[in-house]
Amino acid sequence: MDADGSNLHCTGIAGYGARWSRDGTRFIFTNTGNWGASGLKGSDIFTSRIDGSDIQQLSSTAGDEWYASWSADGSRIVFSYTVDGIYAHNEIYAMNADGTGRSQLTSNTVCDDGPRWSPDGSRIAFISDLAAAEQWEVYIMNADGGNVRRVTNSPSGSTAINPAWVPGF
């Protein structure tokens, strides 16, 4: 739809978590698979033109991929993935924009989720409970998964979710 809410258009694609490409010509999303099933849902990452045409499946695994996001230059995708359908086992992965070159960036005993590229493509923000305090915090890491640092310190009883980058910071 247009910014004012007019020209609403349904693509007819089943999925969620759509994110625009940097050039505004495509979006990336997760197909939900069998949502009613227990365990793995069969969720995979797809891209499409903004009119819903030219759908391309980028992943096809036994696990579930979630929350995909394009890098600033559109060449890489970062996402969370669970191999066994247990949400607490999500890790952060990256791959090339054509679905090749898949690599695991985190390896923890807690859920890492919601990854987002920095505007310059050098870092990734994500949420996790790495401190094992049953409290989500925002972390950043280099694009290769190194140099993980916590950037929030939420008060007891609260949590930080949905990281977003502000250009210039």
Walk me through this protein's architecture.
There is one protein chain. The protein has 169 residues and is mainly β. The protein has one domain: TolB, C-terminal domain (Neuraminidase), CATH 2.120.10. 0% of the residues lie in helices and 36% in strands. The chain is built from no helices and 12 strands. It has strands spanning 16-20, 26-31, 44-49, 56-57, 64-70, 76-82, 91-96, 103-104, 112-117, 123-128, 137-142, 149-150. The strands form 3 sheets. It has a 4-stranded antiparallel sheet, with no helix packed on it. A 4-stranded antiparallel sheet has the order 5-6-7-8, with no helix packed on it. A hairpin with an 8-residue loop joins strand 10 and strand 11 (137-142). The protein is globular. The two termini are 30 Å apart.
Summarize the structure.
The protein is mainly β and 169 residues long. The chain is built from no helices and twelve strands.
Which stretches are low in confidence, meaning pLDDT under 50 for 5 or more residues running? none
* Alpha-beta classification: mainly beta
**Element-level helix/strand string:** EEEEEEEEEEEE
Instruction: Report, as a whole number of angstroms, the end-to-end distance.
Output: 30 Å
User: Into which percent range does the helicity of residues fall?
Assistant: under 10%
Helix tally equals 0
What is the CATH superfamily label? TolB, C-terminal domain
Query: Per CATH, which architecture?
Result: 6 Propeller
Gross geometry: globular
